[in-house]
Amino acid sequence: MEFSNRLKSLPTQFFATLVQKVSGAIAEGRDVINLGQGNPDQPTPVHIVKALQDAATDPQSHKYSPFRGINELKHAAADFYKREYGVEICPDTEVAIMFGTKIGLVELPLAMMNENDLMLLPDPGYPDYLSGVSLANVCYDTMPLLEENNYLPDYSKLTEEQKRDAKLMYLNYPNNPTGATATKEFFGETVTLAMESDIAIVHDFAYGGIGFDGKKPVSFLQIEGAKDVGIEMYTLSKTYNMAGWRVGFAVGNSKMIEAINIIQDHLFVGLFPAIQSAAAAALNESQQCVNELVSLYERRRNALIDACTRIGWNVTAPQGSFFAWLPVPNGHTSETFSDLLLEKVNVAVAPGNGFGTFGEGYIRVGLLVDEDRLIEAINRIEKLQLF
Ligand code: PLP
User: Fold this and answer.
1) What distance in angstroms lies between residue 139's CA and the mean position of ligand 1's atoms?
2) Ligand 1 closest atom vs CA 247
3) What residue spans define the domains of the chain?
4) Which of 74, 215, 324, 357 is placed for a possible disulfide with 91 were both Cys, Cβ 3.0 to 4.6 Å?
């Protein structure tokens, strides 16, 4: 039996190899500190679980639900954007409900692009963007995210051809993997570019709930004109520790929202309504749980950065997300350093080259274990005497 060319064109999952290596080390009984993954370690807040339990007992929840999501959740998403960002969203035409945002990011090229059309993607970036590229059989060019530009793409480096041909651009701040945040000025430049060059923008706001040092991450839709050129994807996975629940939404440009809704009409029936009700509760009710989560990640970030500084590892503190992006020592590549850490001191990290060419020279560390384990990881690394 032969697989389709489309299936064969899918990128190999770089991080599957990492997971295998880490699982192998754990199976050998080694005490591995796993900083390689991006899976939130804290439980979903109790009031959200309770909302799911209550909604699950309602027989209405057990039927097929509306393809395009329940009104309660679409209104909650619109109210959330108004309250948190001062952005007006029409719940009927400017919200699409999704089974998590990964699916939205993967299905958008299918919905909006023809074969061989050009997409612009950040490098380093979330690897699953490439799944959408392959499934839709489109082309992509990368925009380097460099430390000297605070990991923002430099639009002056785009060629005239790229500006002419690109149909869709993905951005993601707070950024996975670098932990960088965007400014309003940068998003303003993005809107101008999008208007001048007719490029649709998708801002992946997966870590929108997680900003440090009292700075709330900027929503792309807060910029004047943003809704004319793009959408923002918001997931409940990170802000409310609901990664396993599979729920997120897109808001913004009504045409792009319609494109998502049309393709989803064909791919899915609506999400389990009880999950949608609980997601609405998460967005509508007190955000104290989010404040506490951000404080927890910030304490972990500070513990990690202090420990790195103590051993002479010259690192920059992330401004948001739950990742730190650390340079590898001289004489190493991302992969040789990651392998060394796992083999010699049982510390698992994600090699930066797995996020793209410009990720070479870095590793990504997740702030998803307790402070004492983060400090212990750095103490173990200190023993290698590389800094
Ligand atoms: N975007 C980024 C940058 C991510 O890191 C992730 C998950 O790790 C996602 C999107 C997808 O999140 P979900 O599908 O859980 O909504």
Assistant:
1) 22
2) 16
3) 5-44+288-382, 62-284
4) 74
